[in-house]
Design a protein that fits this description.
Layout lengths: L5 H5 L7 H15 L10 H15 L2 H10 L6 H5 L8 H5 L4 H4 L14 E7 L1 H6 L1 E12 L15 E2 L8 E6 L2 E6 L8 E2 L12 E12 L8 E4 L15 E7 L6 E3 L2 E9 H6 L1 E7 L2 E7 L8 E4 L15 E8 L6 H16 L1 H4 L1 H15 L1
Parallel strand pairs: 1-9, 11-15
Antiparallel strand pairs: 2-7, 3-6, 4-5, 8-9, 10-11, 12-13, 14-15
Helix pairs in contact: 2-3
């Protein structure tokens, strides 16, 4: 199975600071540490995955290699597998033993641009109905002055005399021949005699760009929206990377989301719970009325079918679950206290009938102390 992107593992942006990386790792380490999850066999896998991502992204040299080459830049084993998307062993590390097995080929340093991640916070209402927003992101873009060549306008890069434009040079170590990146042109195959003043010869410049992002209705926490080709520009003519917009939903004042269902607490008065009545509750589509039957207890759940959210991949709306909370009256007047005392006196005469749960509990307590 292919490894997950280290930034996705830790849940941070590609431009996250080392401190942000450390904070994200500490949070995951606390969550997935095997000692805290003895009954979860996958916890150790998650813990190791987070630790591996942390060790790479807090090492400047390794992080730079990972940003440019992905997993193959920090893990030779990843480059050896064809499924990693970086070709065979010779492509990633040079044609070792090429003299023995014959030939060998040059390698151009054309790289795909890095993928970018953007964390976008939206409201629950926007997630339910869908919306369109604009985001501003930093990215490495092709230099408009030299059009990516790195050379000053009016000049052209020349072929590197050391590698003859292949980007690779061969070193003879006794019986073995090792091919490596040309140290003079750094693998580009070209020499820039007069660097572009706008990008200092890099061919790319850091810019901010504004993009329109269409959020489909029903998105949930952690969903990703891919904007193809909106990542960083490629190197030496390589294709651009992609931008992944990761959805985060802001806490709501009334509702809590559970996949496509919504939950809310519904406080009702002491008298409404005892006598029954009709109350009005909010939904994402307006208000709705619920009939509360007499003798309703705290914890009772009323389900309003179809008043939840229709997920991105769902065919129907979820439900709205209203959890009853009987509110004890406060700031009582003298008359209210007097009436409640009268009620308590009446209830006490036949507590088994009027307060059956309290009567049952007290009987159990008496049995416990009698033993």
């Amino acid at each position: 199975m292919a490894k997950r992107d280290y930034y996705d593992v830790l849940g941070v942006n590609r431009d996250a600071s080392e401190e942000d990386v450390k904070k994200a790792y500490r949070k995951l380490a606390m969550k997935w540490h095997p000692d805290r999850n003895p009954d979860n066999p996958r916890a150790e896998e998650h813990f190791k995955e987070a630790k591996e991502a942390y060790e790479v992204l807090t090492d400047g040299q390794k992080r730079s290699a990972y940003d440019q080459f992905g997993h193959a830049g920090v893990d030779p084993a990843a480059a050896a597998g064809a499924g990693a998307g970086f070709g065979n062993f010779a492509d990633a590390f040079g044609d070792i033993f090429s003299d023995i097995f014959g030939g060998g080929r040059g390698r151009s340093s054309v790289y795909r641009g890095a993928d970018l991640r953007y964390n976008l916070e939206i409201s629950l209402e926007e997630a339910a109905r869908g919306t369109e927003t604009r985001i501003r992101i930093p990215a490495m873009e092709e230099c408009g002055t030299c059009r990516g060549s790195g050379a000053k306008p009016g000049t052209q890069p020349t072929t590197c005399p050391s590698c003859q434009g292949h980007g690779q040079v061969r070193m003879q170590l006794g019986f073995f021949s090792i091919q490596q990146t040309c140290p003079r042109c750094h693998g580009s195959g070209k020499i820039v005699a007069s660097p572009c003043t706008a990008c200092q010869g890099a061919g790319r410049v850091k810019q901010h760009k504004t993009l329109a992002v269409k959020i489909p209705s029903g998105v949930d926490e952690g969903d990703r929206i891919r904007l193809s080709g909106e990542g960083e520009a490629g190197v030496n003519g390589g294709p651009p990377g992609d931008l992944y917009v990761v959805i985060h939903i802001k806490p709501h004042t009334v509702f809590q989301r559970d996949h496509n269902d919504l939950h809310c607490e519904m406080p009702i008065s002491f008298t409404t719970a005892a006598l029954g009545g009709e109350i009005e509750i909010p939904t994402l589509d307006g208000s709705a009325k619920i009939k509360v039957p007499p003798e309703t207890q705290t914890g009772k759940v009323f389900r309003l079918r179809g008043k939840g959210i229709k997920g991105v991949r769902s065919s129907a709306h979820g439900d709205l679950m209203c959890h009853v909370m009987v509110e004890t009256p406060v700031s009582l007047t003298a008359r209210q206290k007097e009436l409640l005392q009268e009620l308590e006196a009446i209830n006490h005469k036949d507590s088994g009938r009027h307060n059956p749960r309290a009567k049952s509990w007290m009987d159990k307590v008496k049995e416990f102390f009698a033993e």
